[in-house]
Amino acid sequence: MDKTIGFIGTGVMGSSIVRHLLRSGYTVNVYNRTKSKTDDLVRRGAIWWDTPADVTKHSDVIFTMVGFPSDVEEVYFDEYGIFEAGKNGQVVVDLTTSTPTLAQRIDKEAVSKGMLALDAPVSGGDLGAQKGTLTVMVGGSQEAHEQIKPLFDTFSSAAELQGPAGSGQHTKMANQIMIAGTMTGMTEMLVYADAAGLDLKKVIHTLNAGAAQNWSLANYALRILKQDYSPGFFVKHFLKDLKIALDEAEKLSLDLPATKQAKQLYEQLQEKGHGDDGTQALIKLWWPEGKRS
Ligand code: NAP
């Protein structure tokens, strides 16, 4: 409870995480590109600052949870960024799903300033963030992980150190390769079961109890039946993740044809204007209105 927290990026995920930190009694300094997205947090006691550098000046630990690797680069390395103000003894923790290479660059810069860095992308979705049950995939030093573990515990149920800088992002890519399969599988399952004239609610209930059980089915199938395509997890962010995963696979001389296919499907979905929908909107490639025809 002795640490003052900085938090940059209070969107779908970040805002829920900040609420957990506030509930646990921490002082939290916040910054977000769109200021209004911090209003509720400020009402709950968070303190607004005008730049990432200002947040950094007033915090011991600085979390970031922005959208894309380019956003991460901006908040760490630009003028008025974290590293402009960073000083000896502070810890930076990037919760964004980003590239292993950028995580290593942040780590190097942090070390040169006497700071510590962790890459710590999460899994568990918007509901996991609200419930405080996220899984955190951590890369960095044991020392930094030990310092930050009590903070992870306020919003996660598992936060394991995977290895040195970049290992958290690599683990998240492994996670997203798996999710590519569960999202396409869940979508094609619904399209098939519907075409076969089955009762979809009953099918979902039955499959959830058998070997086909998975997180995408449990969390998104009923949302589709309710025509709830809100994010959740943005299509544009999943596409970003699939691109990073395939780039990294290529560096490892690996061919991942099923992940490539999932990326192509999500590209088609984004081209149809659904980039700001949740990833369950994949079914709109078959059900353009978002409901059974
Ligand atoms: P989001 O709602 O778009 O949140 C990102 C926030 O970061 C937005 O509020 C955005 O500001 C802010 N931001 C972006 N660039 C910034 C910058 N340069 N300076 C300050 N603030 C900036 O997205 P999200 O769903 O929370 O996801 C965040 C990250 O977590 C993504 O990398 C995503 O892939 C990953 N993730 C998401 C989920 C999920 O289920 N949602 C699960 C696991 C991981 P604006 O308000 O101006 O856009």
Topology:
Elements: E1 4-8, H1 12-23, E2 27-31, H2 39-43, E3 47-48, H3 52-57, E4 61-64, H4 69-77, H5 82-85, E5 91-94, H6 100-112, E6 116-119, E7 122-123, H7 125-131, E8 134-140, H8 142-152, E9 156-163, H9 167-195, H10 200-207, H11 215-225, H12 235-251, H13 257-271
Parallel strand pairs: 1-2, 1-4, 2-3, 4-5, 5-6, 8-9
Antiparallel strand pairs: 6-8, 7-8
Helix pairs in contact: 1-7, 9-11, 9-12, 9-13, 10-11, 12-13
The protein binds NADP nicotinamide-adenine-dinucleotide phosphate.
NADP nicotinamide-adenine-dinucleotide phosphate is lined by residues 8-14, 32-34, 37, 65-67, 71, 74-75, 96-97, 122-123, 125-126, 232-234, 237, 241.
Name the helix and strand elements from N-terminus to C-terminus, one letter apiece.
EHEHEHEHHEHEEHEHEHHHHH
Question: Strand percentage, roughly?
Answer: 5-15%
Instruction: Tell me the helix content.
Output: 40-55%
The appropriate CATH architecture of the largest domain is: 3-Layer(aba) Sandwich
Q: What is the assigned CATH homologous superfamily of the largest domain? A: NAD(P)-binding Rossmann-like Domain
Count every beta strand, where a strand is a DSSP E run of 2 or more residues.
9
Cα shape = globular
Stretches where pLDDT is under 50 for at least 5 consecutive residues are: none
**Number of alpha- plus pi-helical segments:** 13
* Biggest sheet features: 9 strands, mixed
How many domains?
Answer: 2
CATH topology of the largest domain: the name is Rossmann fold
Q: On the 0-100 scale, what is the average pLDDT?
A: 97
Structural class: alpha/beta
User: Radius of gyration in whole Å, from Cα?
Assistant: 20 Å
